[in-house]
Amino acid sequence: MDNPSGDPYIQAFQYFSLSDNAFSIDNFIKIVIIMVFLFCSALFSAAQVAFFSLSPTDLNRIKESSERWQLTIIELLDNPKKLLATLLISDNMLNVAIIILTSLIHIFDYHSQRILGFIVQVVLTTFIIVLFAEVIPKVYSTKHNLQVLRIMGLPIYILCKIFSPVSYILVSSTNIVEKRLKKKSYNVNIDELTHAIEITSDINTNEEEKKILKGIVKFGNIDVKQIMKSRMDTVAFEIGTPFTSLLKGILDSGYSRIPIYIEDFDTVEGIIYIKDLLAHLDKDDSYKWQVLIRPPYFVPESKKINDLLEEFQQKKIHLAIVADEYGGSSGIVTLEDILEEIVGEINDEFDDDELQYSKLDDLNFIFEGKTLINDICRVLNIERKLFDKVEGDSDTLAGLILELKGNIPERGEVLEHEGIKFTVEAVDKRRIKRVKISLPEKNIEIIPEE
């Protein structure tokens, strides 16, 4: 039909006029097939999200169940690469089939505007696939993953068997690529990660978050020995202590878990939990409280605290006895000690408010000799690596002074390392009690103030 007026609406109608066989049976069958393929593609997209969004709680629920569909899910998840390959193969085959079928349907007659017709067809097909076969099913599956797996578990299991040769080729090829990428991977050390946190932070970065990130970076490189409480500072009771004396001692200590030993702390018999004593507060010294002792958990001084944290979580305990190389007990380490390495000092209503150090000014501090080197570095905002060459096996300030001096120094004696001055303030024949630390006015790799 001619358009002598040149009306653009009439021209557009000419471009998109219905073809002669727009309502043919052939087109109708193709549309039905496309809708079926689109629905199947949506199921596979939903299954892809459902399989790989299972929470630990969902996985435990599936493993504990004896239903057949759940056992099938466990078997599929045992080989996640093959599962993913099967899902991608099935989904992409359906999408390709949908595209081919839509190109064979002739509803509109584009006349000479074939490029425009191609663009419209591509955009429309892409929109339908993305919306109905990708976005909607994946959004639904994130909230109803178990329901999706209940429906799709068995069909996908069958397809895994059918597509096994093809998926094997895909998985093998990805393994080759993965090995090549591993060879080119870059090893990043702790110092570089810490520096990366600094240079990627700006004035709007939360200092508390930055502090926690630094704690996480250094977390796996800290030994139990560096954070434990030494046996001299540990509150513990002999197994023969009368019950009333035990209660009084526990009340004075303010701790909820107390080690119990036989004769001395090297032979720790177990741990007494305060909650186990609550039902027996009215008893006298004749009460055999020893039956409430729980077995102790021993860890070596060299154990990394990230491994110990995982063990605490698995065993559901909060305290471990630290054993030295000779089989004796060198101290205790608690869950709180580990968490403080990430989030900083944790204080509760039973903690002693009196600090173990005094700040004289910005450059001068006084610490007790038993203070851990880790804690000193945290207070002074300096790197622990400053003492790597001289600290030896020591983990406390007193031990560091002994490494520097070689023997117990005299009161008032001054030692120096990396520009830091250590003045012995109080000492006896057996140990160093108090030390004054003076920082140099120059910068010595001081960490920015948290």
Termini separation: 79 Å
Give the helix tally: 17
Protein structure class: alpha+beta
What is the overall silhouette?
elongated
The beta-strand count equals 14
Radius of gyration: 35 Å
Report strand order across the widest sheet.
10-11-14-13-12
Largest sheet: 5 strands, antiparallel
How many domain regions?
A: 4
Q: What is the helical fraction, as a range of percent?
A: 40-55%
Strand content: 5-15%
**Mean pLDDT, nearest integer?**
79
Q: Extract low-pLDDT stretches.
A: 445-450
Topology:
Elements: H1 8-15, E1 17-18, H2 25-51, H3 56-64, H4 68-77, H5 80-104, E2 108-109, H6 114-143, H7 145-162, H8 164-183, H9 190-199, H10 207-219, H11 224-227, E3 229-230, E4 237-238, H12 243-253, E5 257-262, E6 264-273, H13 274-277, E7 298-300, H14 305-315, E8 319-323, E9 329-334, H15 335-343, E10 357-359, E11 364-368, H16 373-380, H17 397-405, E12 414-417, E13 420-427, E14 432-438
Parallel strand pairs: 4-5, 7-8
Antiparallel strand pairs: 1-2, 3-9, 5-6, 8-9, 10-11, 11-14, 12-13, 13-14
Give a structural overview.
It is a single chain. With 450 residues, this protein is α+β, with helices and mostly antiparallel strands. The protein is elongated and about 105 Å long. The relative contact order is 0.07. The chain has a 5-stranded antiparallel β-sheet, covered by helices on one side. The protein has a 4-stranded mixed β-sheet with strand order 3-9-8-7. It is built from 17 helices and 14 strands. Helix 5 (80-104) packs antiparallel against helix 6 and helix 9 runs antiparallel to helix 10 (207-219). The termini are far apart.
